[in-house]
């Protein structure tokens, strides 16, 4: 299904934009994409590898560390940032359809995943997890349920370095890869 959406997007005529973004919006978009790359990298390469093994990890006491201190859904929040940035900067019908779909999927997808995890790890343990984590990035830290400094230490240097390298590569080659410059 996802492949079909991307194929339809690439084959669609990209004309008739509803609005044009300003250079400052595109700079902000680039910064948000760095955050998206960071969340994506943290979801995949740091312990706990929450994207692939969440239920196993969350069953254990003391399992709330690293990216889980920031959000229970780092991959989906990276998708929220990615789709939001592209939704705003691709204001033609094809772009709004594709990126709007992914934005809705990512935003609404966190709730059924949380329900599934509650069922798989048990409601009592899930309530403990929920009391120490948040769906929305940094909400648990802002509420005082988690601390920022241990979180930064646990995530380490590898995640931001990989995110920065991937972000820089995509930023540099965006026009070559996707046919559109980031800054125009």
- Overall, the morphology is globular
Residue windows where pLDDT falls under 50 for at least 5 positions: none
Written as H for each helix and E for each strand, in order along the chain, the element string is HHHHHHHHH
Number of domains in the coordinates? Answer: 1
Short description:
This protein is mostly helical.
Layout of secondary structure:
Elements: H1 2-11, H2 23-45, H3 50-59, H4 74-89, H5 93-121, H6 123-132, H7 139-142, H8 148-155, H9 158-178
Helix pairs in contact: 1-5, 2-4, 2-9, 4-5, 5-6
Short descriptors:
mainly alpha, single chain, 9 helices, globular, 184 residues
Structure, explained:
The chain is mainly alpha-helical and 184 residues long. It has one domain (22-178). It has 9 helices and no strands. The protein has helices at 2-11, 23-45, 50-59, 74-89, 93-121, 123-132, 139-142, 148-155, 158-178. Helix 2 (23-45) packs antiparallel against helix 4. It is globular. The mean pLDDT is 86.
């Amino acid at each position: 299904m996802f492949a079909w959406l991307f194929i339809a997007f690439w084959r669609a005529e990209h004309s008739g934009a509803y609005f044009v973004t300003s250079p400052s919006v595109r700079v902000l978009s680039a910064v948000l994409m760095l955050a998206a790359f960071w969340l994506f990298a943290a979801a995949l390469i740091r312990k706990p590898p929450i994207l692939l093994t969440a239920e196993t990890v969350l069953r254990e006491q003391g399992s709330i560390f690293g990216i889980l201190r920031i959000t229970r859904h780092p991959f989906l929040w990276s998708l929220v940032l990615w789709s939001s940035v592209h939704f705003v900067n691709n204001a033609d019908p094809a772009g709004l359809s594709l990126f709007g779909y992914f934005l809705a999927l990512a935003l609404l997808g966190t709730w059924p995943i949380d329900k599934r995890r509650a069922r798989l790890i048990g409601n009592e343990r899930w309530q403990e997890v929920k009391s120490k984590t948040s769906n929305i990035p940094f909400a648990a830290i802002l509420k005082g349920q988690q601390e920022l400094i241990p979180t930064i230490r646990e995530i380490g240097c590898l995640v931001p370095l990989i995110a920065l390298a991937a972000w820089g590569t995509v930023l540099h080659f965006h026009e070559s890869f996707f046919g559109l410059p980031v800054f125009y």
